[in-house]
Design a protein that fits this description.
- There is one protein chain.
- The protein is an alpha+beta fold and about 575 residues long.
- It is about 50% helix and about 10% strand.
- The strands form four sheets. A five-stranded mixed beta barrel has the order 6-7-11-9-8. Strands 1-2 form a two-stranded antiparallel ribbon. A two-stranded antiparallel sheet has the order 3-4.
- β6 (about 200-205) and β7 form a beta hairpin.
Length: about 575
């Protein structure tokens, strides 16, 4: 009988990077955080980034895999027959909830005066950097985390003092046994993205509260402590002007469940760890948020915040996929060489890195715009208003391809559910659907240009980055010329008589040019030759026309820094 061969973990032919610290092995993230964060905040947060990076590459990744294989279930009655619905979550998911919401405070840190030992509200950039690390292990839970943050933001912005006094403490608590999560119940079967077709009804109860009746078709985190709900007040006009926003608590003042039922849970392609369901409102008690008939405008603030979070999550998924591909390419040997030493593999890895790094840059740029907007800086809201749908549209679409192509680097093992690759592919497909499909979000780019005057603000922003980047004249000119053409395309898309058919093309052009300019600026500030190389690749591969029958080499005069082998990143 032949004894099967054994291999020590260090030289096993199937590389497994489980246990790596996903922060410490990411040199680009470290340099970008040092660039974008104030020195004192960066120094304070670094131990927390290191800790979460270790969790994401180890324990959190294990919990995510277990929760993905053991999705939540819906129980309608207790064992004694009481009608008390509850969603049963696997302990692995609950452990991740504790990490995200309690230990790291991801859903509350923007609304507290102290989190992780930092006094004052945590800047958005820190929140998104932590989310970026967390989502590299677990995507599904990041939806409730984002909705909790966004609901709290919307309630603080539009809610009455009475509502804030009653409910804000539980939304901002870090005590796991006391904190509440958030959700938004917006989608209806007949409405979908057409909010004007909302059919859920709201009737005044005479005591300051309202009663909601109707069906909501796709509600993630359906057992959340609170949900924002769109409904039409009886007698209100048809269309968007008749839709109002309401806060729906899961439990009433006496502790009993509110008057709505979770009809069933969805059997989803991805995000299987987190429950999504259908809701039937049966005279549910709710409270008006803001003004009657302004529901869409007020909910738009929550949706835009969630769209930015979607872009962050897509960027994180791509980074994890690229990280796995880089590790396999560095450790796997075939035909007598490491995969990363083969020219075609080096090219393949760069084609994965480019969209992943674009998204990462746009996360930092948009988070900075959000902070400036919240501080009331001139033109910052208009900039945020266009950057948000740009990253939601393009990064979420790119994630679908990057995760699939990265899985190919691992080969057959990548197709096996024991590794993270397949879960990344499944989860990545949600980003382009959640909070607006690609068509809806591309049209929102045009809406930002038309209503907020965002295009000249974006142009001024990019011009300032170019002037501060100290690039070779030929490369700077190519970036500026391309962005000018992207703006012209967007202006054409605004024209009546069918121009909006160009919405997706224009949104992609603006995203690619903006990210290339910002990446070149970052490279100049951090001294990263790799980042400058990727900025050139964005312009060459994703913007400019190329002859597919000619060798694929960017112009020599674009060179800003000495070219470095792409494999340098793979060994990080």
């Amino acid at each position: 009988m032949t004894t099967p061969p054994s291999h020590a973990p260090g030289n096993h032919p199937v590389p497994d990077g489980h246990g790596r610290n996903l922060f410490e092995t990411d040199a680009e993230l470290q340099s970008l955080l040092a660039l974008y964060l104030p020195d004192d905040l960066h120094t304070h947060m670094r131990p927390h980034f290191v800790r979460l990076g270790g969790l994401a590459g180890g324990l959190l990744d294990d919990l995510a895999g277990t929760a993905d294989r053991n999705p939540p279930t819906l129980e309608h009655r207790t064992r004694t027959g009481l009608d008390m619905q509850r969603i049963v979550k696997h302990p692995a998911y609950v452990a991740m909830e504790r990490l995200a919401l309690s230990e790291f405070g991801l859903g509350a840190m923007s609304h507290r005066e102290e989190t992780l030992g930092w006094r004052g509200p945590m800047p958005a950039l820190v929140k998104y950097a932590l989310t970026y690390l967390f989502v590299q292990a677990e995507f599904g839970l990041c939806c409730p985390v984002s909705m909790t943050d966004s609901l709290t933001r919307t309630l603080r912005k539009f809610g009455s003092p009475e509502l804030l006094a009653r409910y804000l403490p539980t939304l901002t608590s870090l005590d796991f046994d006391e904190l509440s999560q958030g959700a938004m119940f917006m989608t209806e079967q007949g409405a979908g993205s057409d909010i004007a077709a909302t059919a859920t009804r709201a009737l005044p109860a005479g005591d300051g509260s309202w009663r909601l009746t109707g069906d909501k078709w796709f509600c993630s985190n359906p057992d959340a402590g609170f949900a924002m709900v769109l409904a039409r007040i009886d007698g209100a006009p048809e269309g968007l002007k008749g839709v109002s926003l309401f806060l729906l608590p899961r439990r009433l003042e006496d502790g009993s469940l509110n008057h709505y039922r979770i009809v069933r849970l969805k059997d989803k392609l991805g995000t299987r760890s987190m429950a999504s369901g259908e809701i039937q409102l049966m005279g549910a008690v709710a409270y008006l948020v803001g003004e009657e008939g302004r529901g869409f405008v007020q909910m738009a603030d929550m949706v835009n915040n969630s769209r930015l979070s979607n872009g962050v999550r897509a960027a994180g998924l791509m980074r994890r996929a690229v990280s796995e591909a880089e590790f396999v390419a560095a450790e796997r040997r075939a035909f007598g060489r490491a995969l990363q030493d083969m020219p075609l593999m080096r090219r393949q890895l760069d084609k994965l890195r480019v969209p992943a790094e674009q998204a990462r840059t746009m996360v930092f740029q948009t988070a900075r715009a959000l902070a400036r907007s919240d501080a009331g800086e001139k033109d910052a809201y208009a900039l945020l208003r266009i950057l948000t749908p740009l990253i939601k549209f393009r990064a979420c679409r790119d994630a679908r391809k990057v995760t699939g192509d990265a899985m190919e680097v691992r080969g057959g093992c990548g197709y096996i559910e024991e590794f993270s690759d397949a879960r990344l592919v499944r989860d990545a497909h949600l980003g382009s659907i959640w909070e607006g499909t690609s068509n809806i979000v591309a049209l929102d780019v045009l809406r930002a240009i038309r209503r907020e005057g965002s295009l000249p603000v974006l142009a001024a922003h990019n011009t300032a980055l170019l002037e501060d980047a100290a690039l070779p004249p030929a490369f700077a000119a190519a970036l500026a010329h391309s962005f000018g053409r992207a703006c012209a395309l967007a202006e054409t898309a605004l024209q009546e008589g069918g121009g909006e058919v160009l919405a997706r093309q224009a949104a992609s052009a603006l995203y690619h040019c903006t990210s290339a300019i910002a990446m070149a600026w970052e490279a100049g500030r951090t001294g990263s030759a790799e980042r400058m190389h990727w900025a050139r690749m964005v312009l060459w591969h994703r913007v400019l026309p190329r002859d597919p029958l000619r060798p694929d080499v960017p112009p020599a005069q674009w060179q800003a820094l000495p070219s470095v082998p792409s494999a340098a990143t793979a060994t990080a």
